[in-house]
Automatic annotation (TrEMBL):
Cofactor: pyridoxal 5'-phosphate
Gene3D superfamilies listed in its UniProt record: Aspartate Aminotransferase, domain 1, Type I PLP-dependent aspartate aminotransferase-like (Major domain)
Pfam families for the chain: Aminotran_5 (PF00266)
InterPro entries: Aminotrans_V_dom (IPR000192), Cys_dSase_SufS (IPR010970), PyrdxlP-dep_Trfase (IPR015424), PyrdxlP-dep_Trfase_major (IPR015421), PyrdxlP-dep_Trfase_small (IPR015422)
Catalytic activity field: (sulfur carrier)-H + L-cysteine = (sulfur carrier)-SH + L-alanine
Residues annotated as domain Aminotransferase class V: 26-397
PANTHER family documented for this protein: CYSTEINE DESULFURASE, CYSTEINE DESULFURASE 1, CHLOROPLASTIC
Keyword vocabulary terms for this entry: Pyridoxal phosphate, Transferase
Protein name: cysteine desulfurase
Originating organism: Senegalia massiliensis
Amino acid sequence: MKSFNIEKIRKDFPILNQDVNDNTFVYLDSAATTQKPISVLDSIEKYNKSSNANIHRGAYALSIRATEMYDSARKKVKDFINAPYVESIIFTKNTTEALNLVAFSYALENVSRGDEILVLISEHHSNILPWQMVARKNNAKLKYIYLNDDYTIDMKDFKSKVTENTKIVTVAHISNVLGTINPIKEIIDYAHEKGAITIIDGAQAAPHTQVDIKKLNPDFYVFSGHKMLGPMGIGVLYGRRELLEKMSPFLSGGDMIEYVEEQSSTFAELPHKFEAGTQNVEAAVGLKRAIEYLEDVGLENIKKHEMKLTEYALKKMKEIPYITIYGTEDIDKRSSVISFNIDDVHPHDVATILDSYGIAIRAGHHCAQPLMKYLKINSTCRASFYIYNTLEEVDIFIEGLKNVRKWLGYGS
């Protein structure tokens, strides 16, 4: 078991070493994007200083080296999620693009009139809007899975809604609002048993827990680099090779072709068929280094650290009578995301007041308006913890929460 040294880890993140509004900076918005360790920043800088070139197109040393670095990043991703084939790893610019790729290249060609697409009500808009588009264009039906009273997925509701017409089941591995860890293995197995394909949004899972594609057996799994210590501008789509091979390209242009004639073209083999144009090589390099950093620390260590922070924060928040928490109380079924509201105070005001104390949280609907409507609220505050947060920062956060209503003149 690798050791976990929070003091050493925090030294790797220079952005944390600053004051905001004359207070110690406390960053609690890692569910939106994570900060980057020095090693990731250095890897990108080193690439740009010594290896920057367009890939797959040059016979000279820099291009060959850049190509090797890009391909090495793909291999690292494949190993990180234990995918069966490196050709099944497609680089995109983010999770949103990966989901849209599946919607346009797979769903539009395989979902017909009367077919059904099943989506969890707590999904991010990026895992709702593409399926609305498919349903609208192909006259299919979009159906929703709802939640239990404890904010976990209602598996009875899920199973009752899977029919012979269900072609796609798509859910998040972990909710970006509720923090719920969904039982995706059970969901995937049941969907497959009924003949549906599965699409898993892993944006909130890949940074925090070991994803094992061979064990989970999803048809598609997607996530982003910037939520796991990597740079913005790179995402990952894993797809079953036999499905990817049958799918049409999402984008067309340079580097994804085999041969082009005046009236027709043939396309490159996987994964290049889905990577048209100049790729974000420096982001791939940064993503590889981010994965190496996570592996060096150990995902199991990271998860234990996050759960310690989350359990402590939940305990302290429950002691404040005017705070409502949205999410299961079962610590084993939730991640380090905590959504909450303070009575009589708008979430944006909460976030603004906390910012005056140097505390960064998120406020709004978190790209999950159907969930907000389902919960009969307009928005929430959201705090999210990661590898570099501390118990002392949780204490600062709690004191900030206690001051919010005082700041607005409500008293204690």
